[in-house]
Amino acid sequence: MAIGSYRKDYPRPQFVREDWLNLNGEWDFRFDDADEGETGEWYRAFSGDRKIEVPFAYETKASGIGEEKFHPYVWYHRTFGVPAGQEGKRVLLHFQAVDYAAKVWVNGEYVGRHEGGYSAFTFDVTRFVKPGEGNAVVVKAEDSDSCTQPRGKQRWRKDNFGCWYVQTTGIWQTVWLEFVEPRHLHSVKITPDVDANAVRFDYRLEGAPSPDLKLTARITMDGELIKELSVAADRAYLSAGVELISEAREWRVEHWSPHSPKLYEVEFTLADGGKVVDRVFSYFGMRKVSIEKGKVLLNNQPIYQRLILDQGYWPDSHLTPPSEEAIIADIDHILAMGYNGVRKHQKIEDPRFLYWCDVKGVLVWSEVPAAYEFNDEAVERFTKEWLDIVRQHYNHPCIITWVPFNESWGIGNIFTDRKQQLFTESIYYLTKSIDPHRPVVVNDGWEHTISDILTLHDYEESGAAFLKRYADKDIITDNEIAHNKHKYALAQGYAYRGQPIIISEFGGIAFRSDKGWGYGNQVDSEAAFLERFRGITQAIKDVDYICGYCYTQVTDVQQEVNGLLTEAREPKVDPAKIREINLA
Question: Helices (H) and strands (E) in the chain — how many of each?
Fold first, then answer.
């Protein structure tokens, strides 16, 4: 099912080049609790006392260390070689994710710093490297227990509590090198227009633009040429659009959807006087997300979303997928149980996960990890990282909803606090300024401000009780009752505007155990589980104004034992029976 440009384990599947070097594997490693490494110039002569398997955080068994105690400063070191044939090219050092901040040195020289545990970043290290072997890269990762940094489900206390788990410190996604000509493509923003049967490419170039440079996009599907478009690369930023109508396809444009996840492949080439200086492979899906008359539409047709909450944790590697095969297996489990999408909860996932959701037709709600305090520092940190994330993942057709806030985390007084309300409004409009084509859910669960979808969290066990509570839509949307204990649908000062309504958390059923917790009463048997699961799922579907749901959750996560699968991905109940209920 993979597209033609697919490269196994390639860390950025939507922007693929041939010349790259994976730096994952064994690195030298050292804790630095006293923060003496910079003063001691460890970046010049590193003496690690441990080995670590990158990209796994030291807290995980997969790292080879497996120490869960928090350490605020950790150091990494490894050597690498520049392959022959790369002379004269720029050397780009990519980090897919380092939590929370990273300082980087190459061959003893300071390269730069990045802050944000869930966004990717790149340094051009050309002037620091030497040909051949013997180059050294050193990384200092800085973390904290501060609740002003976006941390999601990472604990800030000594031990796990509630639904917060062992922290993730340092490198936790792929580190890699890429070799490019001085003039090359920095990025391409791809925007489909289903109604116009067209696609637009917004290019950003690195290096001096020139009228002699030509940028070409060659669009294919299943190996068949659909369209080719060329423009003069005479500016650093340029745009070009093209209709996808093709006689070869009988004037039909293929749309992306869960039922038919058709992807167009595109090869971008940058040529200087006829000589290709850069070639990048990508893809896109022709799909449109819109809202009309209280429904979410996909490609102008209502879609009922059967989502499942997915926190993306593994027992031995935590936030880091243990392998690409493990990513695919998780997606296949989700599809086998009758779900058509995931709400990726409090995690920005590995791009390979999003790639396979693109390929397999899985809808994704992309939700950023939360901070847990509200002040100027938290606002600044959150805003910068969120905008980076939206830009970096914009091209994935599988992402159909952005979720910047969840359950008032980090905005605890939003129900009445105008300052916090305005913060969520600003994030809404900033998101829309980059991406006006997807719904934005502002404060998933309750106390919404200007959200495009009204999402409600409700862990009611009884289907009958649920139907009684939601029989009158107006008493929910007019804030006459608290739908979740003391929580209301809307923040004070905001009115319901006819948005679609989705129950975006429910269920959380756990089998009886003394090792963890679920929502409500625990059950003793598969029969009891299925009775409750069927009752509450069907009740949601029976409410005609609700247009989707999200069940909690795919797998157990540490002390949370309310998954449909164990942490080891073993089904607790027959997946076929879950599928039957979902599709009933």
Answer: 8, 29
Residue 492 backbone phi and psi in degrees, to 5: -65, 135
Alpha carbon 56 to chain centroid, angstroms: 18
SS (H, E, C) 412-454: CCCCCCHHHHHHHHHHHHHHHHHCCCCCECCCEECCECCCCCE
Residues paired with residue 413 on neighbouring β-strands, in sequence order = none
Ramachandran angles phi, psi of 189, nearest 5°: -95, 120
Q: Where are the beta strands (DSSP E) in 116-183?
A: 121-124, 132-142, 170-171, 175-180
- Which residue from 110, 105, 99 is spatially nearest to 78, judged by alpha carbons? 105
Is the model's pLDDT at 249 over the cut of 70? Answer: no
- Residue 251 has a pLDDT of 63
Which residues are CB-neighbours of 336 under 8 A, at least 6 positions away?
575, 576, 579
pLDDT at 250 over 70: no
Cβ within 8 Å of residue 286, ≥6 positions away: 192, 194, 197, 199, 244, 253, 254, 255, 256, 262, 264, 397
- Tokens describing residue 446: 């309750």
| CATH superfamily to which 20-180 belongs | Galactose-binding domain-like (2.60.120.260)
Sign of CA dihedral 460, 348, 351, 452: positive
As a whole number of Å, the CA-based R_g of the chain is 24
The string of pLDDT tens digits covering residues 278-335 is 999 999 999 999 999 999 999 999 999 999 999 999 999 999 999 999 999 999 999 9
Cα angle: 163, vertex 167, 168; to 5 degrees: 130
Q: Which sequence spans correspond to the domains of the chain?
A: 20-180, 184-284, 289-583
Residues 449-478 have pLDDT tens digits of: 999 999 999 999 999 999 999 999 999 999
Q: How many angstroms separate the Cα of 482 from the Cα of each of 276, 454, 457? A: 62, 14, 11
Architecture of domain 289-583: Alpha-Beta Barrel (3.20)
pTM of model > 0.90? yes
Q: Out of 1.20.1250.20, 3.30.200.20, 3.40.50.10090, 2.60.40.10, which CATH number does the structure's domain 184-284 have?
A: 2.60.40.10
Q: What interhelical angle do 376-393 and 418-434 show, nearest 10?
A: 20
